[in-house]
């Protein structure tokens, strides 16, 4: 077992983990943040996307020990109390989800995308979300939601 | 996943001290963690090298760049000096994987990622690269992704990296340290051919640490670009890819660099095409003759013959684009 200190959604955690434990399993099973989901076994689908020190990663592809000393933000940590994050609100407004399984990862990757490029074109949004698969294939509304969030200034820009 | 011990190196010397004895370096982990999970690979000890430094891009006098082995793929792709001087490298990086993976993946890890051949990743199938001596399942099996250059029945797999295709084309040099001392290995000599023994991908020795990758400067006015063709528009490994740099002066090619991806056990340098290009006119007929000189040495098989015309068209489009770009400026 290895001792790790990780800040998850603003709260410090100190835990003993097996080195082989994946970050996503640590978040779900040990910290109880089940909002982050596992959609595949191959680092492909992006459903497990979280932020590690503010940048998106696939938490099924990172060991919990790699997050030691770092800060993790999950889909459960972005709202301000009852007030949804502007990206969450945009997904809601634009009906950017069907079954909702890909949504936590889509939202976390969309925030990363706007942090990198606050005023993306439609094409840039589609490419920026290439690592997130929606099995309901609801991509159009997801793109619209990201455009709305960009307009609302999520990445610090004013939208196009 | 089989259990292993996790250690964290504090600096380069400490990383080398911890190497050996079943230890494997862990960088971003985007390839290694997958392999541990799939059982493609096992390790007694992982030595995390992400906190040893080597995470900076340094501008060298004369216009070259020295890239630390632990620089993340996203950071490298966004680096202003790289985008300015070596667009082919930035484009190759951005053509690979996805944002989340590039945020974790490192330069050194990208160079040492293993093949995506389906048989390599399926532990229930024979694969000599994974299980030495077991033979190559791709010879008679699913073969659409197989190599067409330097083919060997020992292993038909192709090298998966986009970045490496740009780096072989640009004569990048890999700097290492370890049991064999400090070494500088040209990218074109880092990788083994399938016929040299596909069990190992490179000429690195166990415990050898990549510290940097050096990019020598290109002549001013040189244009460069990367184009990747895949089975869908994004987020897939290359069916074929082309990295090219072209220096055209008064309508004649002064220098040409060409790398091909998705077609060989190692990132492939198209030297025959380069030789045919240099000194000749920068026009479509000369480009076609040069690419055909290289393709004459391709050995496609039953299922992957399409790679030849796709590669031809891609290479010609990239060269024409670079010549055009140069003519317009
Ligand atoms: C879904 C998916 C899609 C992908 N698509 C693409 C793609 O289209 N194109 C592409 O090019 N790549 C693609 N990749 C691969 C990705 O680029 C690699 O996984 C990544 O670059 C590896 O870097 P890393 O730092 O995570 O390496 P790790 O996984 O940490 O390490 C890989 C290997 O390198 C060794 N190593 C790492 N650093 C050093 C060092 N400094 N010295 C010595 N040994 C070292 C490790 O021991 C290990 O054996 C994809 C990956 C995934 C999961
Ligand atoms: S669960 Fe992590 S990428 Fe699919
Ligand atoms: S909404 Fe169902 S997977 Fe995307």
Give a concise summary.
The complex is a heterodimer of chains A (160) and B (329). Chain A has 160 residues and is α+β, with helices and mostly antiparallel strands.
The tally of helices of chain B reads 13
The number of strands of chain B is 12
Query: Could you say what the CATH architecture of the largest domain in chain A is?
Result: Roll
Shape of chain A: globular
What is the number of domains of chain A? 2
- Looking at how many chains there are and whether they match, the oligomeric state comes to heterodimer
- Which band does the percent of strand residues of chain A land in? 15-25%
Spans of at least 5 consecutive residues with low confidence of chain B: none
Which structural class is indicated by helix and strand composition of chain B?
alpha+beta
Mean residue pLDDT of chain A: 96
Proportion of strand residues of chain B: 15-25%
Structural notes for this entry:
The complex is a heterodimer of chains A (160) and B (329). Chain A is built from 5 helices and 5 strands, in the order E-E-H-E-E-E-H-H-H-H. Chain A is 31% helix and 16% strand. Chain A is globular and about 45 Å long. In chain A, helix 2 crosses helix 5. The model of chain A has no long low-confidence stretch (mean pLDDT 96). Chain A has 2 domains: 76 residues, Ubiquitin-like (UB roll) (Roll), CATH 3.10.20; 66 residues, DNA polymerase, domain 1 (Orthogonal Bundle), CATH 1.10.150. By secondary structure, chain B is of the alpha+beta class. Chain B is built from 13 helices and 12 strands. In chain B, strand 10 and strand 11 form a beta hairpin. Bound molecules: flavin-adenine dinucleotide and FE2/S2 (inorganic) cluster (2 copies). The site of one FE2/S2 (inorganic) cluster has 10 residues of chain A, from loops.
């Amino acid at each position: 077992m290895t001792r790790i200190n990780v800040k998850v959604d603003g709260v410090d955690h100190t835990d003993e983990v097996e080195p082989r434990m994946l970050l996503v399993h640590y978040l779900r099973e040990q910290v109880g943040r089940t909002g982050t989901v596992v959609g595949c076994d191959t680092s492909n689908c992006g459903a497990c996307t979280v932020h590690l020190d503010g940048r998106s990663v696939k938490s099924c592809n990172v060991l919990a020990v790699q997050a030691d000393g770092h800060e993790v933000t999950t889909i459960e940590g972005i709202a301000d109390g009852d007030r949804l994050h502007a990206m969450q609100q945009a997904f809601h407004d634009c009906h950017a989800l069907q079954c909702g399984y890909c949504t936590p990862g889509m939202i976390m990757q969309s925030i990363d995308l706007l942090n990198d490029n606050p005023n993306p074109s439609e094409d840039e949004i589609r490419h920026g979300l290439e690592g997130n698969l929606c099995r309901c294939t609801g991509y159009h509304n997801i793109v619209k939601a990201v455009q709305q969030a960009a307009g609302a200034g999520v990445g610090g820009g004013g939208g196009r | 996943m089989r259990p292993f011990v996790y250690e964290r190196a504090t600096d380069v010397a400490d990383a080398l001290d911890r190497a050996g004895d079943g230890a494997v370096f862990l960088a971003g982990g985007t390839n290694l963690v997958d392999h541990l999970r799939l059982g493609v690979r096992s390790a007694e000890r992982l030595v995390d090298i992400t906190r040893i430094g080597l995470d900076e891009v340094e501008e060298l006098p004369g216009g070259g760049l020295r890239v630390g082995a632990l620089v993340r793929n996203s950071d490298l792709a966004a680096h202003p000096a790289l985008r300015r001087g070596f667009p082919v490298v930035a484009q190759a990086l951005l053509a690979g994987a996805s944002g989340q993976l590039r945020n974790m993946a490192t330069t050194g890890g990208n160079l040492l990622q293993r093949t995506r051949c389906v048989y390599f990743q399926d532990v229930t199938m024979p694969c000599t690269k994974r299980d030495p001596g077991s033979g190559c399942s791709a010879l008679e099996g699913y073969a659409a992704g197989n190599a067409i250059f330097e083919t060997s029945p020992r292993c038909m797999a192709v090298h998966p990296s986009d970045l490496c295709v740009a780096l072989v084309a640009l004569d990048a040099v890999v700097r290492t340290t370890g049991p064999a001392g400090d070494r500088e290995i040209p990218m074109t000599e880092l990788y083994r051919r399938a016929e040299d023994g596909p069990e190992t991908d490179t000429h690195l020795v166990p415990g050898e640490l990549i510290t940097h990758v050096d990019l020598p400067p290109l002549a001013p006015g040189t244009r460069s670009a990367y184009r990747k063709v895949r089975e869908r528009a994004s987020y897939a490994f290359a069916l074929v890819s082309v990295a090219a740099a072209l220096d055209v002066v008064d309508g004649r090619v002064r220098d040409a660099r060409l790398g091909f991806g998705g077609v060989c056990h190692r990132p492939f340098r198209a030297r025959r095409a380069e030789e045919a290009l240099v000194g000749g006119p920068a026009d479509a007929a000369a480009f076609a003759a040069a690419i055909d000189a290289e393709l004459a040495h391709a050995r496609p098989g039953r299922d992957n013959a399409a790679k030849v015309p796709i590669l031809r068209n891609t290479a010609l489009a990239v060269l024409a684009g670079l010549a055009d770009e140069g003519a317009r400026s």
